[in-house]
Amino acid sequence: MPRANEEVEALLREYADLLAITGGDAFKARAYEKAARAVAGHHDDLSKLDLKQLRAIPGVGRSIADKIAEYFERGSVAVVEEARARIPAGVRELIEIPTLGPKKAMLLYRDLGISSIEQLVDAIHDERLRELKGFGPKTEENILHGVELLRQSGGRVLIDVAMELAEEIVARLSSVDGCVRCTYAGSLRRFRETIGDVDILAAAADSAPLMAAFRELAVVAEVIASGEKKTSIRTGRGLQVDLRVVPPESWGAALQYFTGSQAHNIRTREIAVRAKLKLSEYGLFDVETGELIVSRTEEEVYQRLGLPWIPPPLREDRGEIEAALRGELPELVREQDLRGDLHTHTDLTDGIAPLEEMLDAAAARGYAYYAITDHAPNLFMQRMSDEKMLAQRERVRALDRRSGMRLLHGTELNIDPDGGVDWPAQFLAGFDLCVASVHSAFTQSRADTTRRLVRACENPHVNILGHLTGRQIGHRAPVDADFDEVFRACARTGTALEVNSFPDRLDVRDEHILHAKRYGVKFAIDSDAHSTRDLAQIRYGVGTAQRGWLTPDDVINTWPLTRLKKFLRKPSARDA
DNA sequence: GCCGTTTTCGGCCCGACTGTTTTCAGTCG
Asked: Cα–Cα distance between A266 and A260 in angstroms, integer?
């Protein structure tokens, strides 16, 4: 996302929060929230748009467009400044506490002058909340508990952590008597890169046995709430899991609803409202008669709204509704479309499995081709040498066609701070393909990083840019670069962009994919496996690619080997 | 504050659960 868009999104969100805290028109606050979402998802750099173009963004009207323009002109917005002056920043912090919303936050500030989490905790211990209307002993307890949670966790977990937990729970609940169907929904089904909580959906005539089994799962550390239709628990490591049980005939409507995203659901419900229908998790109803129209399958629900079924990774209100209405939804790349993996390691460098084991595991996945790309010498700790690499090439050549798989001998090069890579051109020419990645100097200036990445693209032997931004979710920030410039270079030079499937990387991420695709960039979905187990993580790369609207044609490792080999001979290398 | 193939006014997604009430407001997703 362009930095300007990010700033405006944050500003609009802050103003929406401040409006909610001060009360008044709730719809006004919602309008700002909606505009914030629209701005975050907008592909153009907001700072380069005029008033008319700003107003063309759905959810941005005259007033908000003026405020955005004011922000770029003066660096601030007068009404937001005024709101900030009325409500201390600490009050806004209060609504980060689970169970504490804008109304309670305002009451705490207005009646007790509380404007920080610390003051709130002190006030509870001094029993000063007891005098407030609507605050009982249970509320105090919930607030203290919420503060504790806020302190000990950033909240979200990596997708593989959530997926493993969800699959375990689904398997357990599916075996409960009377369970007709069970699956995970929510952001996990949409393959978001991190997961705030896990949503499990089950269908059964009687919910009680499922709720009981759920509360008794070994992973449960705390039951947050439990009713007939919904139970929420928290696991030992602090992850919240919600179970919703619906009647079997409501399955489709419920799955659609609980898959989200919220923004997508708002759009589908608006379509329903315009057609004099009402969409809820129980079905699509006629508003006037209250009669149920459809609810059994997601396909029926979408169809009755005049839409084809929309794959969950697209459901972010990023244009999928419009594309669906036009009949132009992409045929998304699927895991079974992948014919090979183009970035993998062995124990010759930092992998943990020998070449043969990696090959056996890859062949078991049904791949037609497979690239071995161990690290190059400039990653000094890996102790790579020309001799080792050439010896590995001999072994790879000897093992070619084993289990029917064609092998490609490659390497993962290190892009140095100037954009150069490990070996001279002559040595590089001996590889079937080269991935090139940033492994050092992550904090260069934007201009230097941009030049560095573009130079790597211009190298005739670099076929794939590996984990472009170098980010490690929750640990290391992405490098700063003019990515538009880099994407243009990728497209121009025939360099593919990697979608690295490691759950803490997922790099490039969905937003970069959407952006790069507009320039005609091609992609490689790679596991970057360092063990046989890692090969299966490619599912997360596929999910990320789907979130970026990629089709098989966009992804070079879905192509037949002959087409792939042609792509791997860059135009600049052919001339040389 | 935004928006329009019923609308430039009058709507705005909708339901579950909790806690504090005694019929409902607040929070959440």
From this structure: 9
